[in-house]
User: What shape does this take?
Amino acid sequence: MTSPAYLIVSIDVHDPEVFAQYAGQAVPLLQENGAEILAATPNLTIEWGEWPRQRLTLIKFPSLQKAEDFYRSDAYQPMKALRQSASDGELILVQGQPDTEPETQSEATAHYLLGSTTMNETGWITEYMQKVPPVSAKFGVQGLIMGNDFTVLEGSWPRESLVLLKLPSEKAYQDFWFGEEYRAMKELREANTVADHVSFAGVVE
Assistant: This one.
């Protein structure tokens, strides 16, 4: 059982031409380090709260060490400077949940929900964690990130914990997130947290 790591890149791009140069150089280096770009898109849907950035990239590494080695490598430093000259934003490195099942091929595009949360109090969590898993399993929800085990590499982050959910398709996401079966638990969570949630497709644009 392995534990991957995720690099969350939440940015505003102010020089698209230079940023395209950065992407062209960074992608091969990411691949050399065993990384997989799960999503890179400006098409974000704010589901709750607010999200200040226009573009989000989600990158999966085989391990936290691999991700740290990539970010600190001599090869990446000139690319990092190029990215920083073309954009502003936050980079967050997160320890993910263990991979328990191999990835399966599907014709549908995966859909993600990224949440950034600060809890007002914790008395509701036991009920939430008891009732949500059966509903999540019905819609194929995978919890990739859960908790406060993350490092802010660049910028700042206002919340104390992160959650990243992966669903097998946009339809599965819509049926889960807006469906009656999850509604009561979603309302319980929203009543006890300050949070920002954004959803996006697993595409590279």
Observations:
- The chain is about 35% helix and 35% strand.
- The first strand starts at residue 5 and ends at 13.
- The CA atoms of residues 40 and 192 lie 31 Å apart.
